[in-house]
Amino acid sequence: MLEAAGLKCVRGDKTLFDGLGFTLGSGQLLHIKGENGSGKTSLLRMLCGLVEPAEGEIRWQGENALKLAEDYFSQLLYIGHSPGIKADLSALENLKVTCALSGTPVSEDDAWGSLVKIGLGGREDLPTKVLSQGQKRRVALARMLLSKAPLWILDEPFTALDVKAVAELEDVIATHLDNEGMVVLTTHQAIKHLAGRETILDLSSREATA
């Protein structure tokens, strides 16, 4: 279980949120909403250990996540708003490198297969600088098909994707939930295929609704 207790986020002289808490268990999806500047990305980065809360604690299986360090970080997959790929590397090379850096090395066949499944068949060996924004996004998202991490933290994962790709990605997320995975995400898009499976946490109102 992932738990946030009494989180406070301060940027400059502004408090974005204070006293924020939630719990997330196996098979559950938490959809973070809020106006621009409400702290959505900051909250995701806190959950990944990239930003420390001004107050409060993040717990994994009842233990302080930051103190668990690698024992916690190895259990999560984070995909940020930016694709985070190297322009001169191919889609295949990017995927293999990012998986290796996250401690999940994969075979070339598995990496190739995930790129085909995510819709990049025939473009695996092209340098990513020649790909469209949607295709670059798919390179980053291909990691989801290879990850064994139970906790996925996704910042605007549907950005730059067409309608078909959005539906396919929703199916990938649904399968992860069916396999007792957990997902925390932000998105401005309606997630039709996941309707009824999400709990919404609105940072603008600080209310959680199933």
Q: Summarize this, please?
A:
The protein has 210 residues and is an alpha/beta fold. It contains 7 helices and 10 strands. Helices cover 33% and strands 27% of the residues.
Polypeptide structure, described:
The chain has helices at residues 40-47, 65-68, 70-73, 91-101, 108-120, 133-146, 163-178; strands at residues 2-11, 14-24, 29-33, 55-60, 63-64, 76-79, 151-155, 182-186, 198-202, 207-209. With 210 residues, the protein is of the alpha/beta class. The strands form two sheets. It has a six-stranded mixed beta sheet, sandwiched between helices. It has a four-stranded antiparallel beta sheet with strand order 2-1-4-5. Helix 4 (91-101) packs across helix 5 (108-120) and helix 5 (108-120) packs across helix 6. It starts with a strand and ends with a strand.
Topology:
Layout: E1 2-11, E2 14-24, E3 29-33, H1 40-47, E4 55-60, E5 63-64, H2 65-68, H3 70-73, E6 76-79, H4 91-101, H5 108-120, H6 133-146, E7 151-155, H7 163-178, E8 182-186, E9 198-202, E10 207-209
Parallel strand pairs: 3-8, 3-9, 6-7, 7-8
Antiparallel strand pairs: 1-2, 1-4, 4-5, 9-10
